[in-house]
Amino acid sequence: MQNINWLELLGYLASAIVIVSILMSSILKLRIFNLIGSVLFSVYGFLIGAIPVGFVNGFIALINIYYLSKMLGQKEFFRTLNVRGDNYYLKEFLSFYKDDIAKYFPKFKYEPEKNRYSFFVLRNMNVAGIFMAREFDQNTLWITLDFAIPQYRDFKVGKFVFKDNVDMFRNDGYSRLIAYSVNKKHSKYLEKMGFKKEKSDGQAVYVKNI
Description:
48% of the residues lie in helices and 23% in strands. It is α+β, with helices and mostly antiparallel strands.
């Protein structure tokens, strides 16, 4: 069996990473993967003697570095915007993202009369996500929906709600948050936000003491 040239493998790897990058819904992840792909393509181009390929992809890598440094260094503004149950935009939002919401919250049912909290999370005044929770017991909130739209899934929305803005819940007398998860990505997100997996009535739940 003929061995594949390692330079060919490098080219294939670079191509695959660039393809993956353009499939990313998060701009941050797109930039990171595209940076890796362009660096590999630049190295590949110089190694095979394709100087224009090396220079062009090296320039693309510098562009990615520039925009990543701006994104990571930029101070962003977050705030919550409470919404009433009959808010028209809220209903349209839930309808527009219903399929994506169902991936992470398959049991979600919009019952505004039960919500203790219902608010949009604004990021630089753009709607980045939505949060809903109802009272589970006197000290506990049950999170029924904690959804960020695809382009803002870089954990910053969650960090704002569960870390930077956690006093909102404490000041209302709550000391514990619980959430259910049937999605691996959502479970990973909850763990990153400080939730711990526990058993409740034979069912796995994620709990965060605040």
